[in-house]
Amino acid sequence: MQIETSSLPEKESSPPSLETSNQWTFLTNHTHVLVGLARDPGLTVRELALLVGITERSVQRILSDLEASGVIQKSKEGRRNHYKLNLKYQLRHPLESSHRLSELLETLK
User: Fold this and answer.
1) How far apart, in whole angstroms, are the C-alpha atoms of residue 94 and residue 81?
2) How far is residue 25's CA from residue 27's CA, in Å, rounded to a whole number?
3) What H or E segment, with its residue span, contains residue 37?
């Protein structure tokens, strides 16, 4: 399939804010949290919530999901949590099951 580039809108200098645009995104909040942790494994729940644009409670639920599934491992460093990502984790959906988490994050980091 070929896309005619002349019919595509001009590229904006920065992406629109989700708070003001009310638009959907291609990736889930689980993926957004993983991308944030891949960039900085020491982010707090509050920092992740601000980064992703969701509540702290939602981030806590996502972190629990990811930890229970073996995608991340949480450890304490002083008073803060530190997250280690299981980059060998096999993606679960049948469309992506031949890929690992490392492949996904490599394109998004």
Assistant:
1) 32
2) 6
3) helix 29-39
Q: Measure the CA–CA gap between 27 and 36, rounded to whole angstroms.
A: 13
Tokens describing residue 25: 């995104």
Query: pLDDT digits over 44-77, tens only?
Result: 999 999 999 999 999 999 999 999 999 999 999 8
Q: Rounded to two decimals, what is the model's pTM?
A: 0.77
Here the tokens at position 73 are: 């491992």
Distance CA 99, CA 93 (A): 10
Work out whether strand 72-77 and strand 80-85 pair parallel, antiparallel, or are unpaired. antiparallel
Q: How open is the CA angle 18-23-29, to the nearest 5 degrees?
A: 65
Contacts for 4 with CB less than 8 Å, ≥ 6 apart: none
CA distance 7 to 18: 24
pLDDT of residue 5: 47
Burial status of residue 86 (CB atoms within 10 A of its CB: 0-12, 13-18, 19 or more)? middle
β partners of residue 76 = 81
